[in-house]
Design brief:
By secondary structure, the protein is an alpha/beta fold. The chain contains seven helices and eleven strands.
Length: 189
C-alpha cells in the first residue's frame, strides 16, 4: 500500500530538514505532498533557498484533503522563524492534532517540536527531542538527547545534523526496513 505523507513548509524553514526527508521518502516510493502554509507555493528557507511547494494548505482545505483520513503521516522541518510561522498557522495546528488523535504519525525536527508541537499539547506525556536548549520551553514532555526519538506515533529529531537520521526513521515507518536498507545502499549512507 502506497503511503501518503504531507509536509508543511513555512517561510523561514530549515532547508536541509525539509529536503532530506522529502527526497529520501520519494526515493523510497512514498508519495510526499509538500504544502506551503502561506498563500503562495514558493517558500523561502531560513538561508535564502526557495522551494516551490506542490500545493498550499488553503488549496488542501478547499479540496477537502486537510483531514487525517487522507494521509498516513505529516512532518515539518524546523528552523526559525519557520517554526514560529507554523505555530501561528491554525489550520496546520488543527491538522496535527487531528492526525495525532487518529493515531497517524506526526513528526517534527529541530525547533518545530518545541515551538510548534509543544504549544499544541502534542508533547504532553511523550518522550521527544528538539534543538538543544529549546526543550526548556516545553512543559509536560520528557526531553531526550537522542538524534531521533520515536514515542508511539510521534517522531522528533534534534537538528540539521540529524536530518538524515530523521529521514531514515520516516522511510522505515512508511516503507519498511527493506526500503530503508535499499536507500542506505543506493545513497551510500
Amino acid at each position: 500500500m502506497d503511503k501518503k505523507v504531507l509536509a508543511f513548509l513555512a517561510d523561514g524553514f530549515e532547508e536541509v530538514e525539509a529536503v532530506t526527508p522529502i527526497d529520501y521518502l520519494r526515493r523510497s516510493g512514498v508519495t510526499v505532498t509538500v504544502a506551503a502554509i502561506g498563500t503562495e507555493k514558493p517558500v523561502q528557507g531560513s538561508h535564502g533557498i526557495i522551494l516551490v511547494a506542490d500545493t498550499t494548505i488553503a488549496d488542501l482545505e478547499q479540496a477537502g484533503q486537510l483531514n487525517a483520513a487522507s494521509w498516513d503521516m505529516v512532518f515539518v522541518p524546523g528552523g526559525m522563524p519557520g517554526s514560529s510561522n507554523l505555530a501561528e498557522c491554525v489550520p496546520a495546528g488543527n491538522f496535527y492534532k487531528e492526525m495525532a488523535a487518529a493515531g497517524k504519525t506526526t513528526a517534527a525536527i529541530c525547533a518545530a517540536p518545541a515551538v510548534f508541537l509543544g504549544p499544541l499539547g502534542l508533547l504532553n506525556g511523550k518522550n521527544f527531542t528538539c534543538y538543544p536548549g529549546m526543550e526548556k520551553q516545553v512543559y509536560g514532555g520528557n526531553w531526550l538527547a537522542d538524534k531521533v526519538v520515536i514515542d508511539g506515533t510521534l517522531v522528533t529529531s534534534r537538528c540539521p545534523g540529524s536530518a538524515v537520521n530523521f529521514a531514515l526513521a520516516l522511510v522505515e515507518l512508511c516503507a519498511g526496513k527493506d526500503a530503508t536498507k535499499a536507500l542506505n545502499n543506493s545513497a551510500l549512507i
